[in-house]
């Protein structure tokens, strides 16, 4: 294992992305976002994605210099296009454009099409919650399909995340340390977590995966590397038809409604991962319910936390967002550990663009 500080790891990834063709400001933001995912305990969305980004740039499908463009402007309703740019860059631009409309109208509904991998969607919900605003996010994935529909036996769509952010605090004074951030893949687990498990040589719990023949397996490699016959396994949705239904909603709102497109073709083997997103951002102050909203939110969340810890659950009730904040505190103090396989992938990726990573 390699152990690095967050700043050191951010610098190394920034230099890697710059060498691949990105401007320094963009590369810094993308690198910082990836490292924040590692800090938050989500290594699946962290720096291990950087080699895939470099490959996508070399393929000519990820444009490292693209900005978000406004295609439709109807006041509180916007249609945006990421133009194939870094998701961590155009996604933040999209949120900032939306925030200006929230200040003006009290809400904004927008779509963002054709963004490269947006990373951890919870980051965008955290941005809104810091302003005291509620946000909803539905995202589809335009890449090799890795999730099987309920009742099916092969991959037909992506992990299609859904995220909801709810601020906690008082009107005009949100408390980021308590924000409720629900961010989940509609598959049983994110694809990136299978990559991490495969790199670390771990098996995964039963019920997550099926192999290329549609049979249950605990080997994460079935969705990471092609099998002997070139076929791949697939992740399962959570909650059977419930997760499947939400995955379809994310595909249709994120992909179809945005104009970014849905997946209905054979996999092409390319490394680029595109996301499209449907978002709603609401200011409870402008809605006129701010006092009741903040008071009832605090009261209800406090009520949940008062539930006695269940047997075998020493931490008791953990609200969405709390594990990430705890992980950040711990990992900032102890450093970030990168497994040998991921480290080697980063080193090899750096060689492709003639820069040293180690």
Can you walk me through this structure?
This protein has 11 helices and 15 strands. The protein has 358 residues and is an alpha+beta fold. The protein has a domain at 189-236: 2-Layer Sandwich (Wheat Germ Agglutinin (Isolectin 2), domain 1), CATH 3.30.60.50. The strands form 4 sheets. Strands 2-3-4-14-5-7-10 form a 7-stranded mixed beta sheet, sandwiched between helices. A 4-stranded mixed beta sheet has the order 6-13-11-12, with no helix packed on it. Helix 1 (6-19) packs across helix 2 (24-39) and helix 3 (50-59) packs parallel to helix 11. The longest helix has 19 residues, at 87-105. The model has no long low-confidence stretch (mean pLDDT 96).
Strand content: 15-25%
Regions with little confidence, pLDDT below 50 for 5+ residues? none
Our Rg estimate from Cα atoms comes to 20 Å
End-to-end C-alpha gap:
13 Å
CATH topology of the domain at 189-236: Wheat Germ Agglutinin (Isolectin 2), domain 1
CATH architecture title of the domain at 189-236: 2-Layer Sandwich
Class of the domain at 189-236 in CATH? Alpha Beta
Shape: globular
- SS-derived structural category: alpha+beta
Compressed to H and E, one letter per element, the order equals: EHHHEEHEHEEEEEEHEEEHEHHHEH
Strand order of the largest sheet: 2-3-4-14-5-7-10
Q: Please give the count of helices.
A: 11
Question: Please, what is the CATH homologous superfamily of the domain at 189-236?
Answer: Hypothetical oxidoreductase yiak, domain 3
Major sheet summary line: 7 strands, mixed
Mean pLDDT: 96
Tell how many strands the DSSP assignment holds.
15
């Amino acid at each position: 294992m390699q152990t690095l500080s967050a700043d050191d790891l951010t610098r190394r990834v920034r230099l890697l992305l710059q060498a691949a063709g990105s401007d320094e400001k963009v590369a810094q933001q993308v690198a910082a976002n990836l490292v924040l995912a590692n800090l938050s305990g989500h290594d699946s969305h962290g720096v291990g994605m950087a080699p895939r980004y470099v490959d996508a740039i070399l393929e000519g499908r990820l444009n490292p210099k693209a900005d978000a463009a406004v295609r439709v402007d109807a006041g509180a309703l916007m249609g945006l296009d990421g133009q194939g740019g870094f998701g961590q860059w155009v996604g933040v631009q999209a949120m900032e454009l939306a925030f200006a409309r929230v200040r003006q109208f009290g809400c904004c509904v927008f779509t963002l099409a054709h963004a490269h991998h947006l990373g951890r969607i919870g980051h965008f919900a955290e941005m809104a919650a810091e302003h005291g605003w509620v946000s909803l996010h539905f995202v589809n994935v335009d890449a090799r399909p890795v999730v099987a529909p309920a009742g099916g036996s092969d991959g037909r769509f992506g992990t299609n995340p859904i995220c909801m952010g709810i601020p906690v605090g008082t009107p005009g004074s949100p408390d980021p340390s308590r924000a409720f951030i629900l961010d989940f893949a509609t598959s049983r687990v994110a694809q990136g977590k299978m990559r991490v498990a495969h790199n670390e040589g771990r098996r995964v719990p039963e019920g997550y995966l099926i192999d290329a023949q549609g049979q249950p397996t605990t080997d994460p490699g079935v969705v990471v590397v092609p099998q002997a016959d070139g076929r791949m396994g697939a992740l399962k949705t959570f909650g059977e038809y419930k997760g499947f239904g939400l995955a379809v909603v994310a595909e249709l709102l994120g992909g179809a409604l945005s104009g970014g497109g849905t997946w209905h073709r054979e996999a092409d083997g390319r490394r680029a991962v595109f996301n499209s997103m449907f978002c709603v951002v609401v200011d409870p102050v402008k809605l006129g319910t701010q006092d009741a909203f903040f008071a009832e939110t605090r009261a209800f969340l406090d009520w949940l936390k008062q539930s006695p810890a269940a047997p075998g659950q020493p931490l008791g009730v953990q609200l969405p967002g709390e594990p990430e904040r705890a992980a950040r505190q711990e990992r900032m103090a102890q450093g970030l550990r990168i497994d040998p396989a991921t480290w080697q992938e980063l080193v090899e990726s750096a060689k492709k663009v003639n820069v040293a990573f180690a």
